[in-house]
UniProtKB/TrEMBL annotation, chain A:
The gene is ECR1. InterPro entries: E2-binding, ThiF/MoeB/HesA, ThiF_NAD_FAD-bd, Ub_act_enz_dom_a_sf, Uba3_N, Ubiquitin-activating_enz, UBQ-activ_enz_E1_Cys_AS. It comes from the Eukaryota. Belongs to the ubiquitin-activating E1 family. UBA3 subfamily. CDD domains: Uba3_RUB (cd01488). The keyword ATP-binding applies. Its EC number is 6.2.1.64. This is NEDD8-activating enzyme E1 catalytic subunit.
UniProtKB/TrEMBL annotation, chain B:
GO terms for cellular component: cytoplasm; nucleus. Belongs to the ubiquitin-activating E1 family. ULA1 subfamily. Residues 9-509 form the THIF-type NAD/FAD binding fold domain. GO terms for molecular function: NEDD8 activating enzyme activity; nucleotide binding. The keyword Mitochondrion does not apply. Pathway: Protein modification; protein neddylation. This is NEDD8-activating enzyme E1 regulatory subunit. Keywords: Nucleotide-binding, Nucleus, Ubl conjugation pathway. It comes from Platanthera zijinensis. GO terms for biological process: protein neddylation. It holds the Pfam family ThiF. InterPro entries: APP-BP1, ThiF/MoeB/HesA, ThiF_NAD_FAD-bd, Ubiquitin-activating_enz. The lineage of its organism: Eukaryota, Viridiplantae, Streptophyta, Embryophyta, Tracheophyta. Regulatory subunit of the dimeric E1 enzyme. E1 activates RUB1/NEDD8 by first adenylating its C-terminal glycine residue with ATP, thereafter linking this residue to the side chain of the catalytic cysteine, yielding a RUB1-ECR1 thioester and free AMP. E1 finally transfers RUB1 to the catalytic cysteine of RCE1.
Length: 458, 524
């Protein structure tokens, strides 16, 4: 708990913003000298990622008056992180990023409490994410962003006129950088475009046609990818390539060099080999600082209303001069993720296992190996084995019955989908509607849940 | 470079290379005032491995410093701020020499101007106008680069001040490849002739590089169009149709690439206006005091007017394109050979110029000349007016344009208000809005002063939004950490560009707009 006497004057600068009225502020801004303390008491912030952006975000949020922060990251510290991930030292190499980052910020900024989670984002129950008022993303992968986005969107509920219910909007702030460029955006599911609405902003990763690699290589990258994708499996039958094993990397480099010599191609180096194989994105401290600061400031504004918020996508480009642009993107009204959900018509006799099969074949969804939840209740879970076993009997029951006999409702499926040729975890919101019910019960808005049929899992 | 440094700096070496890193490691940076803005700027540079830092600040750590500066902790209270910040910065990278001077920047500017002459770059943060103008003069006299950074509530600014910054490796992201399809040289034409576009073997046909396809078809076109390449929209469309007519199959990637790149045969045979301006700059009349850059530009001008026949030296690189390996590698060699021969001509001219101006003919290295030739089309020069000139006679037409452009109105208002704040401090010896009970009075005082600033800037009769004046007083001179981290981040980014001599630095004053994030660069 904050000792207000000892803290006297410490937060002077931020308190000016929070305690004084202004005319260019966010909706519902109620300035008061207690506002910072109130925010401290109710606001819980989750930082996803404790890397280049994550380290900055934790510092920025801690010094923006957020005393309760959680951070989740599955990675451990590497030497190549040290040019920008300023919370880590050489002796930390190999330790959990989330744990070390949390400890360092707490040591420096008294009164701040940071809870680290050293695990994959998919390892947490969906409800873990519902405990936070705001989720700030400092990630470098499209898949992870997409997953967190879909999780945040599952909490979104719509009223009978398909308008989002404000209390269910889980605000997100997302940042990303590459070299001297970066972006920061505010996502209010149901209000502003979600990550999936504007997925086109992220161009797919460069992939070389296999025939180019095998028959007509021209660039050093072609030679490297040949060694990495073709030659490796030819020579090491069954042994998986590990990009973090220096011996494996050295082997790919040597093979790539041989191939380059054979074809008269110049420019294969060890560093380029690593870059191509691991798809390394160049990263520096300054760009991360710029983007994280923008995200943290937006988080403060979203929670306190002390100023207008970014609407809704900011890009920074410092390659030639300095260019900062704000774009106001619009939501896709039929977005699969932040919309009211993909409508699926079912017979009342459709069983849960048939339903899972339908999801795998549905042209818009193509979600394989789905786990199904309805209003927080697990109907079927693919894993862990104990939950799978417990929910397996449900597979043969009609979904209509499992959902408590309602005529229609929202249901969530989490499974695997293919994006850019890669399998990724995904979470989809579905609106199930049952056919063949007696008239008068198919109206929208019926949300009563029958609890008797809920499998006893909790 | 040591293996450990190579690994540690890997992600940035991929951006600015070992040469850029070497420049950083040689740089000595002086920071004035180590509040959050300055501390954050240095943090990013220490992580990147600059040679040395010197932190100058005369104040002691107070309670409110712990609420916005990460480079301080509870134990720092009442101690020298420069000393504490310096110690925490040193922890980030032991390869950096970190020093501190416990003195007020204002006192150094007044009493010891020579202090600044040994640095590569001075980063002046949170400095008021009067001291800044003096510092700018000092830095310009001793050829020290100056970066100005200021955070103020939800606004702030970053600007650069120096006479001239010349960049060879500007590394723009989108730049059209130097293929010379509109004017292929004999060896390139010769090579194109060895490949028949009517080749029956489908493998060869679909692996003929688009460069060859375009040279053939452009030649055909020229023959039937009185020696001219396609220029009008209609002609360009017909040209594309002509390419399409040569396809054996609609899936031939190389022909698709040829259609996409067909505009490259119509690129006018002339240098860009930016390059034109550079080779006609008065600095091209070189003498023994000229920099290597300008000597190279003088040689470039001669090259373009003579051997280049209107073109700069060939860049020599070939983008990847669908092709048999054999064709591609042969083409690559042809481009490289031409680039090398252009470079040799340039080298000869450089040596002759050096002799003429009384310098050692070998005093510019071959690798520098080669790098210059490779980047000749992308040369960039940044010049900055003395800050005093901008403040006393800003471009009124630009200011007026900004005042009426909705996208710029917040930023330009903040620019004026930040100047008004400095005048306010000169009058009242404190920032507006520091006392809750004087806010209303401060608002009208600041407004009056801002009207004065507007008038002095040639904007008589213009007004600023009352809401923004109100905001300015609401900030109470505070340094918000997130804003400071942004401003410090931009400052360090610009510092890297200035020190590595790569990429293009900020051209004007970046005014941060923390309200809706529509920050703008003002060119005044
Ligand atoms: Zn969406």
């Amino acid at each position: 708990m904050e000792n207000s006497f000892a803290e006297q004057g410490r937060w002077r600068d931020i308190d000016n913003l929070l305690s004084r009225p202004g005319n260019i502020v966010g909706p519902g801004f109620e300035p008061s000298p207690q506002l910072r303390q109130e925010i401290g008491e109710f606001a819980r912030v989750l930082v996803v990622g404790a890397g280049g952006l994550g380290c900055e975000l934790l510092k920025d949020l801690a010094l923006s008056g957020f005393p309760n922060i959680d951070v989740i990251d599955m990675d451990t510290i590497e030497i190549s992180n040290l040019n920008r991930q300023f919370l880590f030292r050489l002796q930390d190499v190999g330790k959990s990023k989330a744990e070390v980052a949390a400890k360092r910020v707490m040591e420096r900024v008294s009164g701040v409490n940071i809870t680290p989670h050293f695990c994959r984002i998919e390892d947490k129950e969906i409800n873990f994410y519902n405990d936070f008022n705001i989720i700030v993303l400092g990630l470098d992968s499209i898949e992870a962003r997409s997953y967190i986005n879909s999780v945040a969107c599952t909490f979104l509920e719509f009223d009978s006129e398909d308008n989002p219910i404000p209390e269910t909007i889980k605000a997100m702030v997302d940042g990303g950088t590459e070299g001297f460029k970066g972006h920061a955006r505010v996502i209010l599911p149901g209000m502003t475009p979600c990550f999936e609405c504007t997925i086109w902003l992220f161009p797919p990763q460069v992939k070389y046609p296999l025939c180019t690699l095998a028959e007509t290589p021209r660039t050093p990258a072609h030679c490297i990818e040949y060694a990495h994708l073709i030659k490796w499996s030819e020579v090491h039958s069954g042994k998986a390539f590990d990009p973090d094993d220096p011996e494996h990397m050295q082997w790919v480099y040597t093979q790539a060099l041989k191939r380059a010599e054979l074809f008269g191609i110049a420019g294969v180096t060890y560093s380029l080999t690593q870059g191509v194989v691991k798809n390394i994105i160049p990263a520096i401290a300054s760009t991360n600082a710029i983007i994280s600061a923008t995200c943290a400031l937006e988080a403060l504004k979203l929670v306190s209303g002390c100023s207008k918020t970014l609407s809704n996508y900011m890009t920074y480009n410092g390659v030639v001069g300095t260019h900062i642009k704000v774009a106001d993107f619009v939501r896709e009204t039929d977005c699969l993720v932040c919309g009211p959900g993909t409508l699926i018509d079912l017979d009342i006799s459709t069983t849960l296992s048939q339903f899972i099969e339908i999801l795998g074949q549905h042209p818009k969804l193509l979600v394989m190996k789905s786990s199904i939840t309805h209003r927080g209740t697990n109907l079927y879970m693919q894993s862990p084995p104990i939950l799978e076993e417990m929910t397996r009997p449900n597979l043969h029951l009609p979904l209509h019955e499992l959902m408590g006999g309602v005529p229609d409702d929202t249901i969530h499926a989490s499974g695997m989908a293919v994006r850019d040729g890669k399998k990724t975890s995904c979470l989809r919101k579905l609106r199930v509607k049952f056919k063949g019910l007696p008239d008068g019960t198919t109206e929208m808005g019926t949300t009563s849940v029958c609890k008797e049929l809920e499998p006893d899992l909790n | 470079m040591a293996a450990e440094s190579k690994t540690k700096y890997d992600r940035q070496l991929r951006i600015w290379g070992e040469q850029g890193q070497e420049a950083l490691e040689k740089a000595s940076i002086c920071l004035l005032n180590c509040g959050p803005t300055g501390s954050e700027a240095l943090k990013n540079l220490v992580l990147g491995g600059v040679g040395s830092i010197t932190v100058v600040d005369g104040t002691k750590v107070e309670k409110h410093d712990l609420g916005n500066n990460f480079m301080l902790d509870e134990a720092s209270l009442l101690q020298s701020k420069a000393k504490c910040v310096c110690a925490f910065l040193q922890e980030l990278n032991d390869a950096v020499k970190a020093k501190f001077v416990e003195a007020s920047p204002e006192a150094l500017i007044e009493g010891n101007p020579l202090f600044f002459s040994s640095f590569t770059l001075v980063i002046a943060t949170q400095l008021l106008e009067t001291s800044l103008l003096k510092l700018d003069k000092i830095c310009r006299q001793s050829n020290v680069k100056l970066l100005v950074a200021r955070s103020y509530g939800l606004t702030g600014l970053v600007r650069i001040s120096l006479k001239e910054h010349t960049v060879v490796e500007s590394k723009p992201e989108h730049f059209v490849d130097d293929l010379r399809l509109q004017s292929p040289w004999p060896e390139l034409k010769e090579f194109a002739k060895t490949i028949d576009l009517n080749e029956k073997d489908p493998i060869i046909h679909k692996h003929t590089p688009y460069v060859v396809v375009l040279i053939h078809i452009a030649e055909k076109w020229v023959d039937t169009h009185g020696g001219c390449l396609p220029t009008t929209r209609q002609e360009k469309k017909e040209f594309k149709d002509l390419i399409k007519a040569h396809m054996l199959d609609i899936d031939e990637e190389n022909y698709k690439e040829a259609i996409e790149s067909s505009y490259k045969v119509s690129i006018p045979h002339e240098i860009s206006s930016q390059l034109h301006q550079i080779i006609n700059d008065s600095a091209v009349e070189v003498n023994s005091a000229s920099s290597d850059f300008w000597i190279l530009v003088a040689a470039l001008k001669e090259f373009i007017e003579n051997e280049g026949a209107g073109e700069p030296p060939l860049e020599g690189s070939l983008p990847d394109m669908t092709s048999l390996t054999e064709f591609y590698v042969s083409l690559q060699k042809i481009y490289q050979a031409k680039a090398e021969s252009d470079c040799r001509v340039m080298e000869h001219r450089v040596r002759t110029i050096l002799k003429r101006i009384g310098r050692e003919p070998d005093s510019i290295s071959k690798s520098f000349i080669k790098n210059f030739c490779r980047n000749a089309r992308k040369l960039t020069i940044c010049r900055y007016r003395p800050i005093e000139d901008e403040l006393s006679s800003p471009s009124v037409s630009e200011l007026q344009k900004y005042m009426t452009d909705e996208e710029y109105s917040f930023s330009v208002s903040f620019y004026i208000l930040l100047r008004a704040v400095d005048r306010f401090v000169a009058n009242y010896n404190r920032f507006p809005g520091v006392f809750d009970n004087e806010i209303d009075d401060d608002i009208s005082r600041l407004k009056t002063i801002a009207v004065g600033v507007l008038g002095d800037s040639g904007l008589h009769g213009s007004t600023l939004s009352d809401d923004l004046v109100n905001e300015m007083c609401r900030f109470g001179g505070g340094e918000i950490h997130a804003v400071a981290a942004f401003i410090g981040g931009v400052a360090s980014q610009e510092a890297i560009k200035l020190i590595t001599n790569q990429f293009v630095p900020l051209s004007g004053t970046l005014v941060f707009n923390g309200i809706d994030q529509k920050s703008q660069v003002l060119a005044l």
